[in-house]
Amino acid sequence: MRIEILGDHPQTLTGLLINISGKGARLELFEPLPINCMVRIDSYAAIYLGEVCYCFEESGAWQIGVQMEHSIPIERGLKNLADRLHREVMTYDSQQQES
After folding, report:
1. Got the DSSP string for 47-77?
2. Could you read off the pLDDT of 16-47 as tens digits, one per residue?
């Protein structure tokens, strides 16, 4: 899965989602993340935003705990995108008719 470190120097990593619950997630990465950094996690089901709350090495990989702040289900995100594109097309069409 794709994990993006948010902030002044964004960075994109690939890792595993080990566990997820209502307010937290455990990731496994090959490098550590700073405690309190904000991350975006893109999974097959949703996009999650959260804050790193722990990070420790175990068996050659880094175990990362994330306290979730927001989640956006993929279906809702796709619907919002489709709605926005539809509005843009309708606006463009009406502008072309007025010309």
Report:
1. EEEEEEEEEEEETTEEEEEEEEEEEEEHHHH
2. 999 988 799 999 999 999 999 999 998 877 88
Q: Which CATH number belongs to the domain containing residue 30 in this structure?
A: 2.40.10.220
Sign of the alpha-carbon dihedral angle for 6, 12, 18, 22: positive
Neighbours of 47 (CB within 10 A): 17
- How many structural domains does the chain have? 1
Q: What is the mean pLDDT of residues 53-67?
A: 96
Whose structure tokens read 């975006």? 40
